[in-house]
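Quick one - first record:
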Amino acid sequence: MSSFRATVENMSKLMDEMGITELDLERQLLLGLYRKHIHLSKQQAVAAAPVGFVAQPKTDTKIAGHVLKSPMVGVAYLAPEPGAKPFVKVGSAVKAGDTVALVEAMKTFNPIKSDIDGVVKEILVTDGTAVEFDTPIIVIE
């Protein structure tokens, strides 16, 4: 039994390393007469924002350029998955229809797409930031 526990602990560490959130383990003995089934489920770590925190643009001055805003309340992500290359960076050329960020709401990742051709002038949120409806995310010129 302790070897099964060690297996579960090792699988848990592996889940953390690989970013896996769910895993099923099953052990059968005596030709299937004895069966032990374990389901591991973890929530991905997301930097928690203080209660009542809403992302604000990094600058207090009026934003110049075409601003892409969040269409919903959620969490903004600048890359398709943790550790991946960001969709865009300051200076990136974008075309209308290019995905520049994601906003996750109710476990659904919604792409934020550029609606113009241009160059990314400023990124106004950090990865994993809680955003409200109409929060400015990216400025394009």
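second record:
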Amino acid sequence: MLRGMIFLDHLNFDISIQNYYRSENEFSPKLDYNVLFKNITMKIENVDFLKAFIFAPRPDDFLMRDERLCKHYKWISGLKNTRYIDVVESSYYARPTDPTIEMDITNRSTYYKVEKGTDINLAIHILSKAHYNSFDIAYIVSGDTDYIPIFKQLKNIGKIAVLVTVQGQNFGKIIPEIDDFIVLDRAFFNTCRRD
């Protein structure tokens, strides 16, 4: 059996799911990540799920005033207590759109969000675990082309690199650099719903 680890860029994944369901005129479902990770691993035969790493940004004090974002962050933080899942935090900052106007959490036109650290955290974790031979197959859950060098390096050292995307994500530039890919859709997400 191959040993599989999952590396999930949470912001990319969450936005992709929301966009997918929005295109279907529906709300995105709440997912059970324990089931999600096991079901992703099972998409390729003879793979044992070892562990998953969720790379998620921690909102700054200003962004924590956004009730929805604060609630979402608390849910992600709660996953730190889940077996076989590690949450690796990066940073999420609010920046003013106009330095002469005070940012207002209720007025999105007064600020924008900047995420820092997810890409480098994900790269360090994947490559260090590959170096120590912690897995045979890496499932990278993100359609971000910034990860192409990671896919190349994984293949270069003999690891199996699998891209996991959400239906509707464009990943054509990544295909030459991976061993396989999995596209998640409504039928798949229905098997992972949190009730």
